Amino acid sequence: MDWCEFIAEEEIVEIIPNFKYDKQLNLISGDFGPFLPSVPVKVPLWLALNLQRQHKCTIVVPQWIQELQRLQEAQENSDTLIEMPSECWREIMHLFREQCKSMPNYSSLIEKRESILKSSVHALFRHAFESKSLFLTDVTLHNVSRGELQLLKSFVQKSFAQFQALRNVYVYSKQ
């Protein structure tokens, strides 16, 4: 389990329990319950998945997941990343897909966003190469989720370190 999936499991979702537990669960992330059959209650995703594995509840699919088809169409028509409804949307989708096999696959949305991210990184390096400055101090990417940043982090860090080393060699060779 990566850290993005760990963070995604804290997302609050609604479940419909089929068991009775009159007390509240006092957890680090908050108090949840009471659990009454057929009465919706909000819990962290990790608890919802655990209860569903034990056949003790049904998870109500969040509204934003139902809107992913619209978001997918909007992303297809955009050259920039659109804002997603959750910071950990990819990981949540993955966790839901494991539990609910009938859920649609949004792999084309993921591929389109990765394609835009790659072109953004290429543009960033092109800008860095054309820049007269020896060092770039910050980078801004808009509408990028935590999971997408995690995909880029290692590559961008290593690439910038290599880029700076090459630039230093170039500058010192000119002197």
UniProtKB/TrEMBL annotation:
<feature type="domain" description="DNA replication complex GINS protein PSF2 N-terminal">
    <location>
        <begin position="4"/>
        <end position="60"/>
    </location>
</feature>
<dbReference type="GO" id="GO:0000811">
    <property type="term" value="C:GINS complex"/>
</dbReference>
<keyword id="KW-0235">DNA replication</keyword>
<keyword id="KW-0539">Nucleus</keyword>
<dbReference type="InterPro" id="IPR056784">
    <property type="entry name" value="PSF2_N"/>
</dbReference>
<dbReference type="Pfam" id="PF25005">
    <property type="entry name" value="PSF2_N"/>
</dbReference>
<protein>
    <submittedName>
        <fullName>DNA replication complex GINS protein PSF2-like protein</fullName>
    </submittedName>
</protein>
<dbReference type="GO" id="GO:0000727">
    <property type="term" value="P:double-strand break repair via break-induced replication"/>
</dbReference>
<dbReference type="GO" id="GO:0006260">
    <property type="term" value="P:DNA replication"/>
</dbReference>
<comment type="similarity">
    <text>Belongs to the GINS2/PSF2 family.</text>
</comment>
<dbReference type="InterPro" id="IPR007257">
    <property type="entry name" value="GINS_Psf2"/>
</dbReference>
